[in-house]
Amino acid sequence: MQSTKKNFLTSFIIFFLLLINSHAVFANKINSLHPCKNLVFYFHDIIYNGHNAHNATSAIVGEPAWGNKTILASKNHFGNLIAFDDPITLDNNLHSTQVGRAQGFYLYDKKDIFTSWLGFSFVFNSTEHRGSINFAGADPLMNKTRDISVIGGTGNFFMARGVATLMTDAFEGEVYFRLRVDIKLYECWR
Ligand SMILES: *[C@@H]1O[C@H](CO)[C@@H](O)[C@H](O)[C@H]1NC(C)=O
Ligand SMILES: *[C@@H]1O[C@H](CO)[C@@H](O)[C@H](O)[C@H]1NC(C)=O
Ligand SMILES: *[C@@H]1O[C@H](CO)[C@@H](O)[C@H](O)[C@H]1NC(C)=O
Ligand SMILES: *[C@@H]1O[C@H](CO)[C@@H](O)[C@H](O)[C@H]1NC(C)=O
Question: Where does this polypeptide localize (predicted)?
């Protein structure tokens, strides 16, 4: 008799815990419809072209057999890997005060169209933002806007997650481009 009572109580508690848990998952989904933080930045990439070593913020570090490290390869730059350390600004002016650096790489990864894969961090060191935001994802460059993932962060952006919408704001041949980054965080802990 006593044991049946105990069993009943145990299953009731388990049922109750499951209920709380499913409610938490549900609540999380509802919350995720609204960004908890919305940030806009620009970053500026000056690609080394054989003549601008002092000014360049990025360089080809890998190339296919038919290419070299001075000029981006033919076939939509397929196989070129570029390392960068680009200034981040709050507006579209290259000469505005830097709030941090965009650091990482892009890899041109398709022969027949112009597209790349991005893996980089925003490393902040300003009075307004400290810490980093980490990004990864496919960047089909011909699209007006491209979404990549915010996969994490540190400091002010501790464990952040969300989506960043990239837009090519300007480009000058194959020497300079500027991206506008519209960040929507759906998980904020700070
Ligand atoms: C550095 O690059 C920028 C962007 O292309 C350009 O406006 C500027 O004239 C360059 N400066 C030098 C010294 O090459
Ligand atoms: C690199 O490749 C480009 C285009 O194919 C060529 O014009 C240039 O001379 C090459 N540079 C070197 C240093 O091999
Ligand atoms: C961040 O900025 C402070 C103050 O300007 C400076 O002392 C510090 O070295 C910087 N840290 C990094 C990692 O750039
Ligand atoms: C890029 O544009 C194409 C054609 O407009 C579209 O089908 C595709 O979903 C877009 N990709 C991204 C990642 O936005």
Answer: Secreted, Extracellular space, Apoplast
